[in-house]
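Query structure, 420 tokens:
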């Protein structure tokens, strides 16, 4: 058994791993097709932008057939209804389709957007005119809001709420003051302005004086026939009332040259056409004429631009790039730090002197006046006691030291010192 096992063949398996299959070039073809398609797409976009609308319509008409026949014979065939049997060669049928030839001009890049819209580029002067007109419209809106606000804030005008009418017309901002039943602005048949109408005119003047436009004043009456023996009629009446309003406006600090015209229109332009005899047809119309204040607006804009340019130049002369940084901060909503205040030299505060307290000063001893004749007595004692010891005059018995004569102790001391 041992020999059989030793003779058994030993089998060794070797596994040889094969490499990856070689890649082909199919992906290159797909990538090239993709790049070609993208190039064609962007080329199409460029062509659409470079040609005008008329050229696009011509191309569209060229490829769109005028009529389409249902059969392949006759006018819908290749010969378009022509026959070869004609003496002059090919004869065309009356129903054949005419060919359309469109001669396209060479495209110009970048002209399609502007010309297709049909609008021409405006010059700088025309753009400035448009901006100025826009500013004028904004001024009219602000004046209307301000006048309405002031009118409603004053309680004395509560009864005249229907007497003030403001509207924006092609001629300009029109302010109308209308009569009311039982509350007229002028005396009947006259041009004398009543107090409440005068106050209303003064309110309007406060707004007009701020505006640069010139004004036009027109008077209107109702259609009731009015004429006097002298021929004074609604024409003269409306003119006089308009002129009375002009005088009141000039009196309220409106410049004299600001009034452009004063007219009387009688009953030719009724406010209520269906009721020409209504009291509301009697009115005054004050119009701030559109376009008369453009020069002043232009001057104001020039000054504002010059001021802004000067400020910008001043900023740019500072640190380089500071202006761009501020713009970026404004876009991002970052608050600009406050400008530091200039250094002011510090002035020390003077300290107030402390209040002096009560100081007690001890002066030299002041001797009290002695009794009259005492000096003479003392001299006699001195003369008598020359060469002899002086005897002090004792104080009377029962006398305290405080009750003795002032200065007596000093005299005694001096008497004792001299004999030594």
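Result returned for the query:
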């Amino acid at each position: 058994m041992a020999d059989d096992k030793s003779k058994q063949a030993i089998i060794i398996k070797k596994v040889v791993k094969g490499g990856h299959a070689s890649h082909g070039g199919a992906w290159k073809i797909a990538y090239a097709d993709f790049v070609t398609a993208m190039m064609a797409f962007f080329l199409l976009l460029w062509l659409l932008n470079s040609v005008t609308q008329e050229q696009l319509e011509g191309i569209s008409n060229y490829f769109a057939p005028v009529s389409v026949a249902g059969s392949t014979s006759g006018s819908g065939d290749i010969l378009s209804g022509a026959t070869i049997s004609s003496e002059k060669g090919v004869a065309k049928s009356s129903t054949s389709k005419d060919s359309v030839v469109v001669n396209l001009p060479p495209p110009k890049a970048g002209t399609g957007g502007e010309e297709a819209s049909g609008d021409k580029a405006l010059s700088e002067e025309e753009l400035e005119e448009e901006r100025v007109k826009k500013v004028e419209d904004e001024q009219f809106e602000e004046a209307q809001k301000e006048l309405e606000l002031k009118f409603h804030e004053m309680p004395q005008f509560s009864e005249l709420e229907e007497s003030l009418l403001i509207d924006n017309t092609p001629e300009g901002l029109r302010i109308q003051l209308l009569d009311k039943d039982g509350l007229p602005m002028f005396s009947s048949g006259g041009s004398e302005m009543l107090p409440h109408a005068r106050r209303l005119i003064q309110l309007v003047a406060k707004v007009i004086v701020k505006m640069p436009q010139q004004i036009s004043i027109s008077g209107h009456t109702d259609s009731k026939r009015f004429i006097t023996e002298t021929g004074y009629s609604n024409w003269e009446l409306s003119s006089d009332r308009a002129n009375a309003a002009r005088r009141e406006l000039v009196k309220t600090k409106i410049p004299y040259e600001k009034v452009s015209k004063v007219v009387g229109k009688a009953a030719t332009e009724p406010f209520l056409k269906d009721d020409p005899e209504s009291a509301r047809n009697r009115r005054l119309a004050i119009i701030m004429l559109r376009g008369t204040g453009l020069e002043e607006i232009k001057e104001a804009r020039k000054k504002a631009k010059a001021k802004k340019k000067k400020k910008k130049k001043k900023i740019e002369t500072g640190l380089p790039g500071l202006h761009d940084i501020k713009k970026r901060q404004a876009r991002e909503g970052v608050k600009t730090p406050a400008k530091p205040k200039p250094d002011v030299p510090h002035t020390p505060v003077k300290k107030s002197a402390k209040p002096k307290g009560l100081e007690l000063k001890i002066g030299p001893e002041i001797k009290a006046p002695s009794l009259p004749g005492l000096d003479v007595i003392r001299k006699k004692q001195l003369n008598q006691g020359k060469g002899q010891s002086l005897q002090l005059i004792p104080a009377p018995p029962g006398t305290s030291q405080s009750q003795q004569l002032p200065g007596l102790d000093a005299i005694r001391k001096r008497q004792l010192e001299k004999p030594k």
